[in-house]
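[recover] target loaded
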């Protein structure tokens, strides 16, 4: 069965054109199809609800002739969202409450110097065997910390093996979250007692040195925080609106989460 929204077909050619925008998604084809379906749902709702002045249409049609239709569609969708998706602006009190509950997010300058031994997951190596070997080397490292660099040179699948596993100085945001949580929780000279698992594989992690930063004052980040919270609220409101539109549409060939009523959580 083909994919359609209220009898409007989502063609294979359209999916192929959309696919490069989702190359990094876990399931690129699925992500491309869902994006096209949601765009069509929005576009149909916009055509039913949004009236654009003739002068606006003429300006869009003449701005870039080859992309005129796409520009008009984008403008219709933007106008629809502006009309239908309402989200409150956070107050100073709400911003300050969020700030005080999440002080770690507003630290600046935290620094660690870390090393690791990476056991990379590959199709040719059974995960159980890889984990067993990684655990064996972890116990060696914990028992004889002075051998960490030698173990990294021998066993690590990372290019850092050439320098004894050293990753140099790292600040927050430079590594994947699960790795970051560990390195910023260890004391200088400490080796994590457990393997750290990321999408890159299994890691034995040691922190060489660490330096604490400072928490930025609320007045310094108040405006940026208000913008961030407003965007979060708007994103939730848009998601809610899309669920309602999806629930009201006749969508064939793909399953999307929708709601038949505005009373949806």
């Amino acid at each position: 069965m083909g994919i359609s929204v209220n009898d409007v077909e989502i063609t294979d050619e359209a999916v192929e054109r959309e696919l490069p925008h989702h190359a990094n998604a876990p399931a690129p084809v699925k992500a491309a199809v869902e994006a096209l379906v949601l765009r069509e749902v929005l576009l149909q709702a916009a055509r039913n609800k949004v009236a654009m002045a003739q002068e606006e249409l003429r300006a869009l049609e003449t701005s870039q002739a080859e992309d005129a239709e796409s520009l008009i569609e984008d403008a219709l969708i933007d106008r629809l969202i502006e009309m239908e998706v309402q989200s409150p602006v956070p107050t100073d009190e709400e911003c300050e409450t969020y700030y005080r509950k999440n002080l770690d997010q507003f630290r600046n300058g935290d620094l660690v110097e870390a090393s690791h031994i990476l056991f990379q997951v590959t199709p040719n190596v059974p995960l159980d065997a890889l984990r067993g070997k990684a655990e064996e080397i972890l116990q060696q490292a914990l028992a004889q910390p002075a051998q960490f660099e030698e173990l990294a040179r021998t066993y690590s699948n990372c290019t850092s093996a050439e320098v004894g596993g050293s990753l140099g100085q790292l600040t927050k945001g430079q590594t994947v979250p699960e790795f970051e949580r560990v390195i910023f929780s260890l004391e200088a000279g400490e080796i994590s007692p457990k393997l750290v698992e990321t999408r890159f594989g299994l890691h034995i992690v040691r922190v060489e040195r660490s330096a604490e930063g400072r928490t930025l004052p609320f007045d310094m980040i108040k405006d940026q925080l208000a913008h961030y919270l407003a965007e979060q609220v708007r994103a939730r409101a848009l998601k809610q609106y899309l669920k309602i539109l999806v629930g009201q549409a006749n969508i064939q060939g793909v399953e999307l989460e929708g709601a038949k009523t505005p009373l949806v959580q």
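[recover] notes: Strands lie at 3-5, 8-10, 107-108, 111-120, 166-171, 196-198, 201-211, 214-215, 251-252.
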